[in-house]
Amino acid sequence: MRSDLVVIGGGPAGMAAAATALAGGLRVTLLDSGRTLGGQYWRHPAPGSVPTGDHLHHDLTTYRALVDVLDAHRVAGTLDLLLSHHVWTAVADEDGFAVHVLDRSGTAGSEVAEVIRGRQLVIATGAFDRQLPFPGWDLPGVFTAGGLQALLKGNGVAAGSRVVVAGTGPFLLPVATAVADSGARVLAVCEANSPTRWGRRVGAVVRSPAKAIEGAGYAVALARHRIPVRTSTVVVAAHGQARLEAVTLAAVDGVGRVRPGTERRVVVDALGVGWGFVPQLDLAITLGCRLLEWVDGNHVAEVDAGQRSSVAGVLVAGELTGIGGAALALREGQLAGESVLADAGRPPATAPARLVQVRREVERLRAFARAMAEAHPVPQAWTTWVQDDTVACRCEEVPAGRVRAAVAAGASDARQVKQLTRAGMGWCQGRMCGYAATCLAHEGPDGPGDRRPVDGGPTAYAPVERLVATPIPLGALAAAEFEAKGNSAM
């Protein structure tokens, strides 16, 4: 059966888009790779496991209201909710779109390849942590900041007892406070940038008082747990034999160069590092959606005021249009749902006055997101922390020195670096090393920290097309092909 709408992603944006379209009378299929709704923001343990507690979540009232709405439509038969379904590609067909999924809801080894069809498509696949390599980042005990939070939300597990959280951006604060609430000792939050960078962006904060209140709440929590926030400070190395044992902290200047003599070694057993996020654009790229470069160095999907992409019938909402957080994702999802209704010739599900408010909220939250990205950039000279023997691509075990040698030999961009070194050809397909390889490929002639001009922006990191967005067993594909041929022959 072909749905009126297929929504890919069960986080805030996808849930809001599905709920809005359902309220307008459409039949919807909602797909998500997780075992529960909520995405990474409202990540919950698998059904039947030990609960982790509401204190790890924000705005659970909205989450539960959305779950209730979706569940009511599921019972009524207007919503097909398919969890543990991994979308590996999507293509346009004669009457909409064919979404190819891998059903992993059964036991291991029993995956089934399926095709879900819909007249319109909303892509709300979220983002993943952006990482930068540094000596020791591949030691057990070194996590992304999002990984620390995911362990807590999904499993109720603190990664260690002595923890440092480092990188840049406000996301470090909820991670640190959640880890401290779990009973671990957070020794420091290391913010690479100076708070003075917010000086010229006060207006965005004033127009978003809820964000200011949220920040004040984190400040109180940090003070309660006695967690120091060290600004203009980074982790330049992790140390250990079989696992993480210590980290080296250092103060940096305005572009990220280490200030000599400020290095300090701290004993830890867990480290969470976060340098912002990268939109999960695989499906949007495969479908041909036009991209543009955003202020944080990422490429994002270009959308109109109703979240419509450049491809007819494809709408994009949430972090794929620019990293902006859950509140923005919810409103973008709502706008996407309204656009689907309008394109289907249905009346809006949201009252006109409220719809005007939603659009204003989106504008305000996008302005705050841009200000946040400008106040918390990746330090320009971060490659000065990277030694030649530092692993740059963990999947293929490519050291940074080999990348630099490829550039010296004539490689002019990350694609040529990939061809010469295999950086980005491993299991993650460049998701962890792509940004770093691009930066290393554009080091200037004076070595680390000297950056050659890059056409298009600060790093010009452009994600590449991956026809297979998630690993899929060949046996599942073969079985699906066999079944399709058998059915067509009958």
Structure overview:
The structure is a single chain. The protein has 490 residues and is of the alpha/beta class. It has three domains: 3-128 and 278-350, FAD/NAD(P)-binding domain; 131-275, FAD/NAD(P)-binding domain (3-Layer(bba) Sandwich); 382-451, Orthogonal Bundle (Arc Repressor Mutant, subunit A). The protein is 32% helix and 23% strand. The protein is built from 13 helices and 23 strands. It has helices at residues 12-23, 60-76, 145-155, 172-181, 202-206, 209-224, 282-286, 326-343, 352-375, 400-408, 414-421, 434-441, 474-489, and strands spanning 3-8, 28-31, 79-82, 85-93, 96-103, 112-123, 127-129, 142-144, 162-167, 185-191, 229-231, 233-239, 246-251, 264-267, 270-274, 277-279, 291-293, 299-301, 314-316, 391-393, 398-399, 443-444, 447-451. Strands 1, 2, 3, 4, 5, 6 and 19 form a seven-stranded mixed beta sheet that branches. A five-stranded parallel beta sheet has the order 8-15-9-10-11. The chain has a three-stranded antiparallel beta sheet with strand order 12-13-14, with no helix packed on it. α3 (145-155) packs across α4, α8 crosses α9 (352-375) and α10 packs across α11. The two termini are 19 Å apart. Residues 453-459 have low confidence and may be disordered.
